[in-house]
Write a structure and sequence with these properties.
Blueprint lengths: L1 H57 L4 H69 L4
Length: 135
């Protein structure tokens, strides 16, 4: 009986190892995505700075040209805002997925722990009953 309990605990340990691997993979994926987001921010910032430099160079050409350029810059900012909104939503979705996985895994772990405790209690009860001569 103890061998069976040990086998059960080994199975639970293997499952925990599998879960740990999944968490590590999820963490690695999330970090890679954050790096992608950082690169996108840097690209957006670089693009924005280039646009400001173009506006500064052409500012002296004429007032009309300057207003047209500012309108283009405004459109660029709208595009950056849209991209930032998309990135924020994407990060929120990733966080929600991780929360759901965490809740599922927590419920599974509690069930497995309950099963293991139940088996231990039944084994102990059997030993007491055999000791008392009931069996």
């Amino acid at each position: 009986r103890f061998e069976q309990v040990d086998k059960r605990f080994e199975q639970v340990d293997k499952r925990f190892e599998h879960v740990d691997k999944r968490f590590d993979e999820s963490k690695k994926d999330m970090l890679e995505r954050f790096e992608q987001v950082d690169r996108r921010f840097d690209e957006s910032r670089k693009d924005m700075l280039e646009r400001f430099n173009n506006v500064d160079r052409r500012f002296d050409e004429s007032r009309k040209d300057m207003l047209e350029r500012f309108n283009k810059v405004d459109k660029g900012f709208e595009h950056v805002d849209q991209r930032l909104d998309l990135i924020t939503r994407s990060i929120d979705k990733i966080g929600d997925k991780l929360d759901i996985r965490d809740e599922r895994q927590r419920a599974f772990t509690i069930r497995m722990f309950s099963v293991a405790i139940s088996i231990s209690i039944i084994g102990t009860l059997g030993v007491f009953m055999k000791t008392l001569g009931i069996f």
